[in-house]
Design brief:
12 helices; globular
């Protein structure tokens, strides 16, 4: 059976923990899109980890971790991560890398940084991981596929062609040092040495695994609102963040995805620029940021303070719909235990009218939040294992949000650890 774990919002929803938890029953875990530009924070018996490319199931010795063809493969980052988990006592993970994945080159990161510098105040808030230039090259058909590392004649011709093309921009737009084809070839040879033992025909491997009845988990990066088609364009990422893309980014038939676990936070947070209707500021935001996540709401990749907000039912309902949620995992609920009252955004006022449907970006920029204030529960809920043992106001908060978004909340996370989870029988 194939399941997907994806985000309903701007990313940072707590997917890493849910993937790590579901990894216990999984044979294979697949990263199907994105790159090292966003991280998943995981707390387990080995310690606390921020993963960027490795699938979040690497901590189990019975799983195979796969980098799918849809991933922006930063080979040095991947192997640095493998080393970092092994150094903390984690058994060496079983890794497979798709022969059809494409490679993030050092110049992609340079172009990312140069473009943010050029845009200055109008930048996209990039993590400068090379993601937008990488995907631009992939779709312009000038990227390097892992399989091409094994065709020397092709590489020697291609590095010259790529350097010529890139150097026009470097010289005339960015006024930066030019690329040397020999340096590009040597970079690719280094990458070949690192990745060669792991290269696999992943779609065939997964085809056979499905036939054998293996449990496969697809792990998404970021969330619905960062999708380039259905998100807050242009303040989005460069690959599809939707579960539907899991089929493409892993190389399996779409009808094989039977369960889509869509992760929502019990409040909102976001890294990067873009419309964020329920955003809060000042002391109120600082307090929630300080208490949030599993040690504060700061980006796992950048360390940047996350933007904070109250739960947004409009965005989350839309995010769950776009993912095709069969289940909602509701995370970091324990964080809200300090509040007397909890505002929830239930609508957007746009040009004097209230809507509960998520609009396109130019209207989103004009939206003002419509709040309903719910009573808090004012107690620590960590350690509770049964839904009925949660405080009444806590249950009412969950049930109110479930009714607003229209998708079943079947998992409630009440702490950062792997076992801090309450299952609801819906």
């Amino acid at each position: 059976m194939v399941k997907a774990v994806v985000g309903a919002n701007w990313g940072d929803e707590g997917k890493g923990k849910i993937t790590d938890m579901l990894g216990k029953e999984s044979d294979i875990i697949v990263r199907f899109q994105g790159g090292a530009n966003a991280g998943h924070t995981i707390v387990n018996d080995y310690g606390k980890f921020a993963l960027h490319t490795l699938p979040s199931g690497v901590f189990y010795d019975h799983t195979t971790s796969i980098i799918g063809n849809g991933v922006a493969l930063d080979i040095p980052k991947l192997f640095g991560e493998i080393q970092s988990v092994i150094e903390k006592g984690v058994p060496a993970p079983k890794i497979l890398v798709s022969d059809r994945a494409q490679i993030v080159m050092s110049y992609h990161k340079l172009f990312d940084a140069y473009e943010e510098e050029r845009l200055a105040g109008k930048s996209f808030g990039s993590t400068k991981s090379g993601i937008a230039p990488f995907y631009s090259d992939k779709y312009a058909k000038i990227g390097f596929q892992v399989s091409e590392l094994f065709d020397d004649d092709l590489l020697k011709e291609k590095v010259v062609r790529i350097a010529e093309q890139k150097n026009v921009l470097l010289e005339h737009l960015y006024h930066k040092p030019l690329l040397n084809p020999d340096d590009l070839y040597n970079e690719l040879m280094e990458y070949k040495k690192m990745v060669e033992p792991y290269v696999c025909n992943v779609s065939l491997f997964l085809h056979n695994a499905i036939k054998e009845g293996k449990n496969i988990l697809l792990e998404g990066q970021l969330g619905s609102l960062k999708d380039p088609d259905h998100g807050i364009y242009p303040m989005v990422t460069s690959s599809s963040t939707l579960a539907a893309y899991g089929a493409i980014g892993a190389g399996i038939p779409p009808y094989e995805i039977k369960q889509i676990i869509t992760v929502c936070k019990a409040y909102s947070s976001a890294v990067g620029a873009g419309a964020f209707v329920s955003e809060i500021f000042g002391d109120e935001a600082d307090e929630l940021r300080k208490r949030g996540g599993d040690g504060g709401e700061f980006g796992a990749t950048t360390g940047r303070p996350r933007r904070m907000g109250w739960f947004d039912c409009v965005a989350s309902k839309y995010g769950c719909r776009m993912q095709g949620a069969t289940d909602v995992a509701f995370t970091v609920l324990d964080v809200l235990g300090y509040l007397e009252e909890i505002p929830v955004c239930v609508g957007y006022e746009i040009n004097g009218e209230v809507t509960t449907e998520f609009p396109v970006t130019h209207l989103l920029e004009k939206a003002k939040p419509v709040y309903k204030v719910l009573p808090g529960w004012k107690e620590d809920i960590r350690g509770i294992k049964k839904y009925e043992d949660l405080p009444e106001n806590c249950r009412k908060y969950i049930e109110f949000i479930e009714e607003q978004i229209g998708y079943p909340i079947t998992m409630v996370s009440n702490g950062p650890g792997r076992d801090d989870i309450i299952y609801r029988n819906k």
